[in-house]
């Protein structure tokens, strides 16, 4: 039996071939396997499927967040002190970026 004529149109490979970036689409030029090995090495052989509960956080996010918390002091954004101003300014920056 012949393959459905629309099957080629809907394939991910066809989608990638039509893009200017080709296979680099969505991964910043890195292949998906390399991205998984770098960002989610802690999974090992585990296959994580519970994205409805929460998505996995990549190693780069953990490092950036830890570095930020290790170098800055955040306070209540409604208080009047230096750490609170940093928190307030950070919130405003995120809100309006």
UniProtKB/TrEMBL annotation:
Top-rank lineage group of the source organism: Eukaryota
Protein name: Molybdenum cofactor sulfurase-like
SUPFAM superfamilies given in the database record: PLP-dependent transferases
Species for this entry: Python bivittatus
